[in-house]
Amino acid sequence: INAEYMGNEGGPTIIAEPVHGTPPHLEGKKIANPIATMRAAAMIASNLLPNLNVQYFLETAVKQVLQEGVTLTPDIGGTSSTDEVGAAVIERFSALLSLALEHEEVFRDG
């Protein structure tokens, strides 16, 4: 799975993106794997909201979706669309965040 991302931080600026760039050959097909983009967005959110465990919850949600193996894009052996994979990850992320809020485990120490 090519779901790697990279980030560059410098002062108040952060840039994060999938290492593979964009897949123009998949434009309009709705089968591009959104995971690297979501992971990059979580890195930015973690930088903007440093006291929240945004990146941890998203990474955990991604791992759960991948381990379940039901909602996957074709590049990793599935038949799901970009939107379906994104929705599955967001659903898991939201559930994890809600559970953590109930137990006040969302905020990092410090």
What is the structure about, briefly put?
With 110 residues, this protein is mainly alpha-helical.
How would you portray this structure in words?
The protein is mostly helical and 110 residues long. The protein is 45% helix and 11% strand. The chain contains three helices and two strands; from the N terminus they run ββααα. The chain has helices at residues 35-48, 54-68, 82-102; strands at 5-10, 13-18. It has a two-stranded antiparallel sheet. The chain is flat and about 40 Å long. The N and C termini lie far apart (34 Å). The mean pLDDT is 86.
What does the average pLDDT come to? 86
Count of DSSP E strands?
2
Give the end-to-end Cα distance, rounded to a whole number of Å.
Answer: 34 Å
pLDDT < 50 stretches: none
Q: If strands are numbered along the chain, what order do they take across the biggest sheet? A: 1-2
Structural class of the helix and strand makeup? mainly alpha
Percent range for β-strand residues: 5-15%
Biggest sheet: strands, sense, closure? 2 strands, antiparallel
**SS element count, helices:** 3
Overall radius of gyration: 15 Å
The proportion of residues forming helix, as a percent range, comes to 40-55%
What does the overall shape look like?
flat
Element string (H = helix, E = strand): EEHHH
